[in-house]
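Blinded run. Sample ID left blank on purpose so nobody reads anything into the name before looking at the predicted structure. Input follows.
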Amino acid sequence: MIEECLAVEFSVSGDDCPLAEATRTTGTSADAQPPQLREDGYALVHFSSANGDALADALDGDDRVRYLHVARSDGRYNYRCLSKHPCVVHELVSAGFLVDGLHYDAGDARYTGAVVGHDVLKGVLDTAGDTVGVTLERVFPLAGEDDAPVADRWGVTPAQADALLTAREMGYFEVPRGADATDVADELGVSKSAFLERLRRGQNRLLGEAL
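Blinded prediction complete.
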């Protein structure tokens, strides 16, 4: 039986990996899967964005990127490439951080994931403290099987679940609204466009499961 599992969220600024720099240069956002570090030193990166040509051009012009592939599906662009310059998340992973998702917004990033036990958390925090631009945003125990979080029950990402729950708590869905999109985005610490994107994708997933 494993120790208590803790959900952890980090904010990251100043990362100089290709994806962070590309979103910074183009002023766009992207959602990435956990990168896979290969034996040859390259990281396999999968991510998606509402932006197409500008982000693709920025990555294509980066000599650290290889085999960039772009496909469009459901109104979003899906990217796959090899990066010679891994992002700082690999340092946290080496310390025991189980990354679930990465969201980049104009160069800044938010990492969500988990750690197993407080001893591992301490090691991850020590690593984060030695890594420029990495700040712990929050940490909380994951619920047990009888009280599964929204993300587990309905298939939404932690970021989408956070957007939905925060919006509900602040009265965003009430008539008249108790808070507007800017208010909720400020509470979440993200841009208005990032909040609305998470909200729409989360609502789409919930409706798809319910109907």
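Unblinding after everyone has recorded impressions. The longest strand covers residues 65-73.
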